[in-house]
From TrEMBL, chain A:
<dbReference type="InterPro" id="IPR017941">
    <property type="entry name" value="Rieske_2Fe-2S"/>
</dbReference>
<keyword id="KW-0408">Iron</keyword>
<protein>
    <submittedName>
        <fullName>MocE family 2Fe-2S type ferredoxin</fullName>
    </submittedName>
</protein>
<keyword id="KW-0411">Iron-sulfur</keyword>
<dbReference type="Pfam" id="PF00355">
    <property type="entry name" value="Rieske"/>
</dbReference>
<dbReference type="InterPro" id="IPR036922">
    <property type="entry name" value="Rieske_2Fe-2S_sf"/>
</dbReference>
<keyword id="KW-0001">2Fe-2S</keyword>
<dbReference type="InterPro" id="IPR012747">
    <property type="entry name" value="MocE_2FeS"/>
</dbReference>
<comment type="similarity">
    <text>Belongs to the bacterial ring-hydroxylating dioxygenase ferredoxin component family.</text>
</comment>
Automatic annotation (TrEMBL), chain B:
<feature type="transmembrane region" description="Helical">
    <location>
        <begin position="215"/>
        <end position="237"/>
    </location>
</feature>
<feature type="transmembrane region" description="Helical">
    <location>
        <begin position="176"/>
        <end position="194"/>
    </location>
</feature>
<keyword id="KW-0472">Membrane</keyword>
<dbReference type="InterPro" id="IPR012171">
    <property type="entry name" value="Fatty_acid_desaturase"/>
</dbReference>
<keyword id="KW-1133">Transmembrane helix</keyword>
<dbReference type="Pfam" id="PF00487">
    <property type="entry name" value="FA_desaturase"/>
</dbReference>
<keyword id="KW-0812">Transmembrane</keyword>
<dbReference type="InterPro" id="IPR005804">
    <property type="entry name" value="FA_desaturase_dom"/>
</dbReference>
<feature type="domain" description="Fatty acid desaturase">
    <location>
        <begin position="80"/>
        <end position="319"/>
    </location>
</feature>
Length: 104, 369
């Protein structure tokens, strides 16, 4: 298993928001929940490969900007059409004001 | 405004989703492409995207109340001419306003609360005679591949335009005929090749079940009409999709009519039109159509704000429905002679130039006005 990768500063993500993080040709989405927890998923929607970081975070949901497909970004669960395939999630930790993602 | 047509050795347009135009759209990268959008700072975009239940609850309470009141008055005056104005209003609220509710709730942007979107979506889908599953997927495709021939299943005006069909659809004639045929086929478990192209396998059973519910309700309305020996049940259920859809068609044709196809810039293929408040209520602000296509996450109530924010980058909106028709109808007539003709509206000096890389490089403009 690969190690922890430094993705961004904890303050780079607003509360209840998401940013994009690219690493070695892959793209991820880093979320900060309304209760100040951090999460990470694949960066592209499983419907049509649109960047989720342009979408809207509402509670524990990320809504895709293209067709409004919704995922639970904590579990990756797809919440219904037009998204049918779950999103891959990654472990996250915050240390020294930095957000780290464990990428496999 | 300029109007452009290309000297055309274009392949004749084939609007089926499984034909040569579909294949060429995929091969040339027109399909599933990245679209132009105006730059908006993330903070402003987040504000615009915010959901709330208030505006849609007010809208829905008003809409349903007006439906109930006009239907009750129509029933009360049934048999006299006094019923006509009430059914005129009821028809527009049922056969036209349902389209906008279907649309906005299908995007999930009307309400913040998911079940409210889903409930209104189901009711409106029934009223507008659309399979709620099929049309969710076709509309997703419409946003991925807006007016891309062979990919978009919701192109209202195919080229060359069939003006008889367009006129008949102000009374729902073709839409209801084909819509009903599709619903009945779906209810019997049959999906067309086009439907299979955009509905994933795991969703097809849901489409069949939804069609069965719709067909059962229509069958009950027909039986009621026969049982009571009266047209009234059908004037209330199903009928408004014929006599009340004129407003939906009137504003819907303006969305993309006469504009470019096979481009990846919504400023070239969509039209924003300033409209009167009644039409905006029936249409849920979808008159801001370029804005909606560029940013489908922005709810109906925030579209006027979005428009103000990005209008420097868009062609000037048409000033009224009439103004839109004055622009669009002559273009339809020109397309009868030359189906490659389209309107290309001028951008303001503050706008970024159009993205036209998907027009064929060897195309030569032969008309500009
Ligand atoms: S691309 Fe995300 S919902 Fe379609």
């Amino acid at each position: 298993m690969a190690g922890w990768i430094e993705a961004c500063g904890a303050d780079d993500v607003d509360e209840e928001d998401v940013i994009r993080f690219d690493h070695e040709g892959r793209t991820f989405a880093i979320y900060r929940s309304p209760d100040d927890e951090y999460f990470a998923t694949d960066g592209l929607c499983t419907h049509e490969k649109i960047h989720l970081a342009d979408g809207l975070v509402m509670d524990d949901i990320i809504e895709c900007p293209k067709h409004n497909g919704r995922f639970n970004y904590k579990t990756g669960q797809a919440k219904g059409a037009p998204v049918c395939v779950n999103l891959k999630t990654y472990p996250v930790k915050v240390e020294g004001g930095q957000v780290f993602v464990q990428i496999d | 405004m300029s109007a452009v047509s290309f000297s055309s050795d274009f392949v004749k347009r084939d609007y089926s989703l499984t034909g040569p135009s579909a294949r060429s759209a995929v091969e040339t990268g027109l399909a599933s492409a990245e679209w132009y959008h105006t730059e908006i700072p993330r903070k402003a975009m987040k504000e615009l995207m915010q959901r709330s239940d208030g505006p849609a609850i007010r809208d829905t309470v008003l809409w349903l109340s007006l439906l109930v009141v006009t239907a009750a008055a129509g029933i009360f005056f049934w048999g006299s001419w006094w019923a006509v104005p009430f059914f005129f209003a009821y028809g527009a609220l049922y056969g036209s306003a349902s389209d906008a509710r279907w649309h906005e709730c299908g995007h999930g942007t009307a309400f913040k609360t998911r079940w409210m979107n889903d409930a209104v979506y189901q009711i409106a889908s029934f009223m507008v005679m659309r399979n709620p599953v099929t049309w969710r997927w076709s509309h997703a495709r419409h946003h991925t591949d807006t007016i891309i021939v062979g990919r978009d299943a919701e192109i209202a005006v195919m080229r060359p335009p069939d003006l008889f069909r367009l006129a008949a659809n102000f009374f729902g004639i073709f839409d209801v005929w084909y819509g009903m045929k599709a619903l009945i086929a779906n209810a019997f478990g049959v999906l067309s090749a086009d439907e299979k192209d955009f509905i994933p396998e795991m969703e097809r059973r849901k489409a069949i079940n939804a069609a069965r519910v719709h067909v059962a309700i229509y069958a009950a309305a027909v039986l009621a009409a026969l049982g009571f020996g009266s047209w009234l049940p059908l004037v209330l259920i199903g009928g408004p999709r014929l006599y009340g859809c004129w407003h939906m068609v009137m504003v819907g044709l303006l969305q993309h009519g006469g504009l470019a196809d096979n481009v990846n810039d919504h400023r070239l293929n969509s039209r924003t039109v300033y409209m009167n408040p009644v039409s905006r209520f029936l249409y849920m602000n979808m008159n801001y159509h370029v804005e909606h296509h560029m940013f489908p996450m922005v709810p109906f109530h925030a579209l006027p704000r979005l428009h103000e924010m990005i209008k420097h980058d868009l062609p000037a909106p048409n000033t009224s429905i009439l103004d839109g028709y004055r622009e669009m109808l002559p273009a339809f007539l020109r397309q009868l002679r030359n189906e490659d003709y389209f309107l290309k509206r001028e951008l303001p000096a503050t706008a970024k130039p159009y993205r036209e890389e998907f027009h064929r490089e060897d195309s030569v403009p032969i008309a500009a006005e």
